[in-house]
Amino acid sequence: MGKSCENLWHIKAGLLCFLAIAIAQVSTQSDGGQKWAPTWADRLKKDLLKDYDPSLRPSQHYNVTTVETSITITHVEINEIKSTLSVYGWMKFTWNDPKLTWNPADYGYLDVVRMDPTIVWRPDVVLYNNAGGSDNHHYGDTNALVYNGGKVLWVPPTEYHAFCELNMRLWPFDYQKCTLKIGSWTFDGYKLNITVGDDPQIEILVKNSEWRIVKVAAERHTTFYPCCTEPYIDITYNVTLQRQSDTHRAIVVIPAMVIIMFALSVFWLPLQAGERIVMNGIIALMITLFLIYFAQQLPAISGLTPLIVIFFSNTLLLTAFSTIISVLVLNMTKPKHERSLPSMLKRVAGCVGPFVGVGKKHFSFSDKGNVTIESSIDHEWTKFGLVLNRLSFLVYCVIFVICAFYAI
């Protein structure tokens, strides 16, 4: 009996020692797992955000929260088909949050802390003329700087896609003026006062081969709507862009000048040359290809057809008339006409001829040039054909000069 009690006592003692060792190991592991102590920033963040609601404006309902804004643009793009302007850069928002204040001496003289912007209140400033539909997430989630006096500075990377009324009249030498209109989505001017801070900045990171930013200006507007007595404030950034035309000059302008020279050279071919009609056909084909290119590159904007497109379409029409003139001149210079030139056309040729270098004795019956004249009737028809050809050349020169002045 004594031995049994002694054995039982040894078993209990062993179990107690095992439990003590296990508890000691667990306690040691739990103590060793914590590798850092809370920093002043941890304690400050915990104290500041206690009972803090980021969805509520950090001020009494009868007080105004002032938000200062400014923009820095690093890149721009224009989509002519969708009539939209894309702006990349960053915005700068500054406001005061009375709930986020502390005494630096109580937190190791820490006077600024960086916080996730989703856990503090932010002004609901969005782009009014947003081209992204219901997607109004324009800003990246970068940290906000909170200072001990309650000042909050938030500089998020920004991507705006705004509708822009494009004027393509002077394409490809056009200037475009677009606007970025931002404001609060839910607060009126009595609750949220949006102001203009620093002047807009331009810091191009990658040189844009097509657009150059000429000017960016900021305007603050206060609007009263018929439905409401409260003012609504917005900041409008007016962005002026100039198209870089070097590439378009090589693709569009130089070929247009070549087409003009080809169209005028048709009138210098021999009057009886059938190549005049062939040349006009080649010119018409070239113009048609360019018009197809314009249809693919440019938007169909009512009333704002680019002048260069009007020039090419009018040149196509002039080429058609030039073909008709070439056919008429070709028929006039054929020999063995049965009917003489009508008297009215004779008078026209006599009046206009001297102005285009065709005198009354411009042809003689002994001429052996490109035009064969076998009778006085053929002479009259050929002379009138020459007058018509040269007069058409002068008229076309005037038309092309006017078109080139306005379109090219």
UniProtKB/TrEMBL annotation:
Keywords: Membrane, Signal, Transmembrane, Transmembrane helix
Annotated signal peptide: 1-24
Domain annotation Neurotransmitter-gated ion-channel ligand-binding: ranges: 42-244
UniProt superkingdom: Eukaryota
Sequence ranges assigned to domain Neurotransmitter-gated ion-channel transmembrane in this UniProt record: 253-343
Chain ranges passing through the membrane: 250-270, 277-295, 307-330, 387-407
GO CC annotation terms, alphabetical: membrane
Name listed for the protein in its UniProt record: AGAP009493-PA-like protein
Organism, as annotated: Anopheles sinensis
